[in-house]
Amino acid sequence: MSDRRASSARAITWAARRALPSLLSVALALTVCFVAIGISRADFSVAAEAFQQMTWGGLGDFPGFFRDRSWALLTRPWGESTTKAALLVFTGLSVSVAFCVGLFNIGAQGQMTLGAITAAVLGAYLPLPRGIHPFACVIGAAVAGSAYALLPTFLKLWRGVHEVISTIMLNWIAVSLVENWLVVGPLRASASGDLSRSGTQEILSSAELPRLLGGLSRLNAGFPLAVAAVLVVWLWLSRSGNGFEVRAVGLGSEAARTAGIAVHRRTYQAMAIAGALAGVAGGVWVLGTEHKFPATLGSPYGFDGIAIALIGQNHPLGVGAAALFFGILRAGGTRMQLLGVHKSFPELIQGLALLFVAGKMIWERLLIRSQRRAMPSAEAPRA
Amino acid sequence: MLAVDDVTAEFGPGEIVALVGENGAGKSTLMNILSGLYQPSSGEILIDGEKVRFRDPGDAIARGIGMVHQHFMLVPTLTVAENVVLGREPRRLGFFDVRAALASVEATTRRFGFALHPDARIEDLTVGSQQKVEIVKVLYRGARVLILDEPTAVLTPQESEDLFAVMRQLAAAGHTLILISHKLREVLSVAARIYVMRRGRLVAQVKAAETSSEQLATLMVGQSQPAGAGSPRRASPGDAVLEADGLEALGSSGLPALRGVSLRVRAGEMVGVAGVDGNGQHELAEVVTGLRPFQTGSLKLMGKPVEVASPGTVRRMGVAYVPEDRFQRAIIAPMQVEENIALGRQRQPPFARGAWIDFGGRRSRAVSLLESFDVRPPDPEAPIGELSGGNQQKVVLARELDVAPKLLVVVQPTRGLDVSAVNAVHQRLRQERERGAGVLLISLDLEEVLTLSDRLYAIYEGRITGELARDEFDENRVGQMMMGTRSDRAPRGAADV
Fold this sequence. Notes:
Chain A has helices spanning 2-40, 44-59, 62-68, 72-100, 108-125, 133-159, 163-182, 222-239, 241-251, 253-258, 263-290, 301-311, 316-336, 345-378. Chain A is mostly helical. Chain A has a single domain (21-364), classed as ABC transporter involved in vitamin B12 uptake, BtuC, CATH 1.10.3470.
C-alpha cells in the first residue's frame, strides 16, 4: 500500500516537474507583454486595464454579470474561448501525436485546410438526417486530413524525404488547391446566383454542430468533442499496448524494430491519427462556427498547434490545458481592442511563451551538462 | 565518495608497471590524476624527486607524462602526421607546415621503429596501427611516462604481441610505461611489477614472476573467484536450432558483408564466433535475428526454413537477442526500466491484458526480474538510461532470458562491464546452455569466446575461416584463422554436424 502511495507521489512530482517550465514560461511571457503594453502606452494603468479586459473577455464578464444579472455576459466569452480552444486542442494534439512517433508535423495547417473543405462540401451537398450529418462531415474531414498526412509519411519511409520539408510544401499545395482554386472556382457559392458572397455554399442546417447554449453563446459541440479527444489520445498513448508501441518507435526506433515492433506500420498509424485530428479541427471550424469555407482559413491554427504542443510539453493533458489557456487569452484579446491595444497581443504572448519553453529546454540541457562535468569528483569512478 | 584513497605508488625509468583492478576500483581516476585531468584533494606527485602540481593535461605533458586513451582520439579523415601534430602543429609564417610535420613525425616513428607511414589516412589503418599512432602522438609531445589504458581491448592476439614488443622497446629506451588492464594473462607477460587496486586502495604490489592470474584475480575481487573455465558441458547437444548455409548479405554500406557463411548451433550448446571487428559478425547477428535480409543461402531456425525474416517473426520462433549496441538496439533510454522489460512482449501477459497495458502484472514481473538479476537500484520506474552500463545489460539479459529462448544470440555481452558483472553475465549464459538453449556467442574478446564456447568458428571478411571443437582450442591457431590464414583443415561447415 505504502508502495503505491510512494509511486503516486512520484508521479505527482514528475508531473509538476514536467509542467513547471511551461508554467514559468507562460508567466514570464505575460509579464513581458504587460511591461510592453505599459511602456508603449507610457501608462501602466492601461496595461492593467487591458489585462483585466482580457480576463473578462476570456473567462466571462463577471463584474458586468453581477451588475446586470445577464447570463449572456458570461456565456458569450465562454463561447468564444471554447471555440478557439477546441481548434487549438485538435491541431495541438495533431502535432504532439506526430511528435510521439518521432515526426515533426508542420503540415497540420494543410491537413486542417483539407478537412475544412471536405466538411464544407459534405455539409452543403450531402443530404443526411440531422443526427447523422455532422458525424459524417467530421469523419470525412478526419479522413481527408489523414490522407494528406499519410502522403509525407510515405515519402519519408519510402524515400527518406524529411517530413518538415514535405509537410511545409504540402501546406502550400493545400492553400493553392483549396483557397486559390476550389473556393474561388468550382465550389464558389456565387456560382449558384449570389455574387456578393465569398466562400463556398453554406452548409445545410442539418450539418451544423449543435450550439449547446442555444442563442446565448457560440459554444458548440466541438468543445466537448475536443475534451473527449484529449482523453482518448491520453488513454491511447499511456494505457494501451498500441500506444506503448508508438511511443517506443518515437523514442528509440531501432530498439523498437529489434524488439519486433512494426515500426513502419506504427509510424503510418500515428501520422494518420495526427492528420485526422488536424482534419477534424478544420471540420469543427466549418461545422461549428463558419458554416461554410470562407475565402481563406484566416487564423493559422495549424501552426499554432506546434506552439500548443510544445507549451503543453507534448502530453495530451498538457496540450488540452495549453489550448484552453490560449483559447481564453485569444477570446479576451478581442476585448483589449476597446483600449486601443492590438488584439494580436495574445498571439505575442503565445509566441513568447513558446520561445521561453524552448529556451528553458536549452537551459535545462546546459544545467545537466554542467552537473555531469562536475560529476567525476563527486561520483564513483569508472575504471 | 573517495575514488582513490591514500595511494602511494612508484614508477621507475625503463620499467613496465601494470595497474589492475575491477571497474570502479579507481585505476582510471588515479591515472587521470597523474595525467592532470583531475586534481587530488590531498597528496602529492613527485617527478625526479621534485614536487609538481598539474592544473590540466597540458601541465602533465609538459612534465613528460602522456596518456594513451582506450578510445582512440583520432580524426579518421586526417593523415597520421596530421593527427600526431594536432594541437601542436609546426608553423611557418603562421600557416600549418605540412613538410615539417611529416619530417618530425617520420623521425619519431623511425627512432622507435614503428612501421607507420606518416601520410597514410587514419581511416585506412588497422586498429593496431591506429593504436601506434596514439602512442606516437604522446611520444611526439615528449612523454617519458606513458600511461596505456586498456590498450589491447580492440586488438587481435598478434597485434597485441606487436604492441608488447613496442612497449618493451620503449622501456629499453628508458621510458616508463604504466599499463592499465584487466586481461591478467597479458599483464603477467609484459609487466615486471603489478599494482592491484580495490575500492580506491592499493591492496597489493607483486612481481609478475612471483604471481599467477588466479592470485591476481583473488586480490582484485577480494575473494576467491568461482571456477569459470572448463564448465561442464552437456553430454550431447540436441537438435539444431540454427542452421545457416552459404549465407550472403550486404552490409549497411551496400557492400557484401557476408560471403557465404555456413554454421550450426544445436540446442544445449554454446557456439562462439571469433573475429576482429568489422569482419561480418555484426551482419551475421542481424541476419539471424531478422534485422537484415540475406541475398542468397538458406537459414533454418528450429529446423524450419526462414524465407523472409522479420524481427517479430524470428522472436516468435523462440529467438532472443542481446545486441552489441545496447543504446541503439537493446534499450530505449528515456523509458522506464519496467517499460524496457516489457519491450517486445508489450502485447502479451503479464505485460498486457487485451489491448491495454497491465500495469500491475508488469510491475510484479519487473520487480521479480530485477531482484533475480540483482539489478541496482532495483527501481522499475527509473528511466533505464540512468542505470550504469552493467545494470542496463542485466536488465536486457533479464528481458531476453525471461522468454526461455530456444536460440540466444549474444553479441559482445560483456563489453565495458566490470569483473563481477562479467561473471554474472557469463553465469547466466552457461545456465541458458544447461537449460537447453542454443547460444550463439559473437564476441571480439577472444578470451571470452575461448572460455565459454563448446565450439567456435572464426570469421574473416565475411567468411568462416575455421571451426574448432573445445579440445582443439588454441589461441594462436584461432588468431591465425581470425586473420584469414587458412587453418590446416578446411572448415567443416555443416556437413558433419
